[in-house]
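Progress narrative, work stream C.
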Amino acid sequence: MLNSIYMFYEFLARRGVGMGAQLEQHRPARPGDHAGFLAGIAERSVKERPIRLKEKKRRPQTLSDTEVQQILDACDRFRDRFLMALMFETGCRIGQALGLRHEDISTDQLSITLRPRENNVNRARGKSRDPKQIPVRRALLDLYAGYLFGEYGELSCDYVFVNLWDGPIGAPMGYWAVMSLVKRLRRRTGIDSHPHLFRHTHATALLRAGVRLEVVSELLTHVSVQTTADTYAHLDADDLADELTRTGFWTAR
């Protein structure tokens, strides 16, 4: 009988089962470890793992400048090109873009204001708590003007992005319509992209250009700088080398 037990444990050891036990220790039981009638008869120590393996954080996937241009060039309508360019230019979330009203765009101040609204009929959600005015370039507003005069026309709607060819014409554009557009662009370009990838691309480009972390956080409408740091501030070797060159640290030596 004992020989059989020893042979069984030897089998488990060869299979590597014993490795997990090396990371476990016993501690006194705490209230709540055992419930109900088991509380009186269960063993008085509980296994726990004192060591937690730290997960390596990686910067989110991004698109190259060439891929961004290919996606923009694949848009054959003003509305679609303006939507893609808006997300690349500002890094706004798709919910923030779909919730935009015409009053949120200022052609005089060269800015858009991302406003958190709870009553969007297309159920768009922006996540940010407070309105945030974001600067934009004139080229983006020129796309907006082309969209208004070339396609939007006389439609009476407060929303910037509306259905023009599919769905209820003139109604605010919804998530399903955006995903349908993204799938078409994937087929045309062969580039695997999604709306949040545009945001990642924008944020990473800002950091690589040397924009301060707190400024990037404001532009992304993050609640705190720590959120931005946790998501994007994981520089690879090329980023570090570029920064040393940009600051003149290497050339000075």
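Work stream C, second folded protein:
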Amino acid sequence: MASQSTRVSGLAVRYAAALYELADEARDIDPVARDLSTLQTMLDESEDLRRFIASPVVSRDDHAKGIAALADAADIGATTRKFLGLVASKGRLVALPGMILAFQRQLAKARGEMTAEVVSARPLSETQSAALAARLKQVVGNEVAIDARVEPALLGGMVVRLGSRMVDSSLRSQLQRLSLSMKGVG
């Protein structure tokens, strides 16, 4: 999937907060988090699924049936299944990616974790990801989860966003800075 925005609508935050409270009361947070992670992976991998949830032409009833079939196929738990049914019946499936992101952020905050958005030219290996997470933990003092994405246009290096901080060590940016300095602008 193309670049995922880190902005989340107020609607998505409210739905995610309601789901978090419901999952917390049912002591079902980890299974719901796994279900949402599975759904996010499905959304990332399927253009058809993204079109389906975003389509204003599909009726609420058809959205509800489709998302129920998807939940069955993906072995989604009862709490998440009920939530998805509610979201579909209210015509809010288009905001599902934002709801998933807002839930993950709320869960990370409750656990004292931070999430670093890492964009690299090539996929990070497990070793590289673990080393980066360990180094970021040293810097911020909290556990850091890595949300990795590949963008070949960077040519090399990576861009790391952690909260309001950003470190851009990509080859593309270095070449741009060099070009500007050679022109006498930088």
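The first strand starts at residue 113 and ends at 120. No further action is required on this item.
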